[in-house]
Amino acid sequence: MSPANQEQPSAPEAPAASNQDADLPLLELRDGLSEVIDSDPALTETVEAFQAGTGPVAVDAERASGYRYSHRAYLVQLRREGSGSALVDPIPFGDLSALGDAIVDTEWIIHAANQDLACLAEVGMVPRQVFDTELAGRLLGYPKVGLASLVSEVLGYRMRKEHSAADWSTRPLPSPWLVYAALDVEMLIELRNAIEQELRHAGKWEWAEQEFTAILDAPPREPKPDPWRRTSGMHRVRNRRSLAVVRALWEARDQIAEAADISPGRILPDAAIVEAASAMPTEREALQKLTAFKGRGAHRHMRTWWEAVDHARKLPESQLPKQGPRYDGPPPARAWADRDPDAAARLSTARASVAEIAEAHRLPTENLLAPDTIRRLAWSPPEDLTVDVVTAFLRDHHARPWQIALTADILTDAMASEAPAKPLD
What Gene3D superfamilies does the annotation carry (predicted)? Predict the structure, then answer.
C-alpha cells in the first residue's frame, strides 16, 4: 500500500468560535509574583527547585526586539509542577547551563519554539524534547495561534497583552512587566495537556511528535544572501546605482548598530535609506536636507552616511549590485509562465492539490508542505517520475513522514501536468 493510500486520520471539527474577551475571566498569577533571580544563591535554589519538580517544564524568554541589535534573552521564565514559577535574569550570569541541565531530561513546553530556542541556547539552555503549543495549534486548525488566543480558546482565560513589545533590556524591569512575563508560563502546562488531548482525538498526535522532533533536528539557519535587499520600500529603488546606495547605507548602519547593540532602525530608518537612494544627492548638504535625515539619530552619524552615499556614487559599473536578488533555487514563480510554461502548469496543479488536502485536514497549507519544496519539485522534477522517487525528494527536503504520506501520490501526478497548447494562428 502506497503512503498516500494508508488510512488517514479523519478531519476534526473546526475549533469552536472564540468567546468575547470581555466575557472571560482575566488570568492571574496563582502564586503571586516571585522575585527576579539575579544572584548566585538565588539561582542555586532555583536549580534545585526545578530539578526536584515533576512533569514537563513551561519555558519562555523575552528579548528586546526593536530596541537591541542582538537577539539575546533578557528574561527567562519557567514553571513546573512542584517547583512553582521563576523569573531568571540571565544578564548577571551569562550562562544558565546549570538550570538547563537540571531540566534537560524532561519535556520543555515552549510557545513558538523557533523564536526562543536560539536565545535559550545562547545562555546554555538546550532541550532534548519540546512541545510547541503554537505549532500544535496550527496542526489543529485554530485560526489564531498566538498564546493569548489559544489560552482564551482552549482554557477560557483572557491574558494581558500590553507589554509584548516592551524593551526587556530595561533594568530594573517594572513590576507590571514581570507579571506579564510570569503569566506567559502560568497556563502553558494546562494548555499543553488540553492540546495533546485534541491532537489525539483528531488523529494528529504522531504528526505533532514528528514536528516537535524536526524543530530540534533543524540545522542552524544560514544567513540570507544580500540582507540589505530586505530594506522596507525597496520597490521604489529603480536602478543599480541606487541599489548600491541602499547597500552602502545599510552596511554602514549595520556596523554602527552591532557595535552599539541598538536596533538598526533606531539609528537610521529604512525610509531614510530609500529616500537617499532615490534622491541620489551629490553633496553632503543635500543629503542633510532630506526629510528622513533630519532626525537626531540620522544627524549624529551624518559623516558616515555621506561617505557611504559618495562611495556608492563612485563605484564602477562592474561593482554595482544586480537588479534582482540572487536565488538559491528556482526563479520567482511569477516568471515561470514565460520561462517554462510546463513548470508553471506543474506548480499550479501541485499547489491546488496540496491546498485541497490541507483544507480537508484543517491545516494551513504551509504546515502540510513547505512552499519552497513544492516550487523546487515543480521546477526540476525527477526524470524517473515515480512515487518512490518523489518520496525520496521530499525526504531529502526535510518533509516529515506524515507530510510525505499525504502528498507524495498527488505530487507525483501533478508533475505530469503540461501547459495547454497555444492555438495556431
Answer: HRDC domain, Ribonuclease H-like superfamily/Ribonuclease H
Instruction: Note every long-range contact of 320-328, with CB atoms under 8 Å and residues 24 or more positions apart, other chains counting.
Output: 320/240, 320/241, 320/243, 320/244, 321/226, 321/240, 321/243, 321/244, 321/247, 322/240, 323/239, 323/240, 323/243, 325/225, 325/226, 325/229, 326/225, 326/226, 328/225
**3-61: per-residue pLDDT in tens?**
333 444 443 444 444 445 667 998 999 999 999 999 999 999 999 999 999 999 999 99
- Which pTM was predicted? 0.90
Return the CA Rg of the chain: 26
Asked if 182 contacts 34 with a C-beta cutoff of 8 angstroms, the reply is: yes
First-to-last CA distance in the chain?
48
Strand order of the sheet with strand 130-132? Answer: 36-37, 84-88, 75-81, 54-62, 108-110, 130-132
Domains detected in the chain: 21-217 (3.30.420.10), 227-319 (1.10.150.80), 333-414 (1.10.150.80)
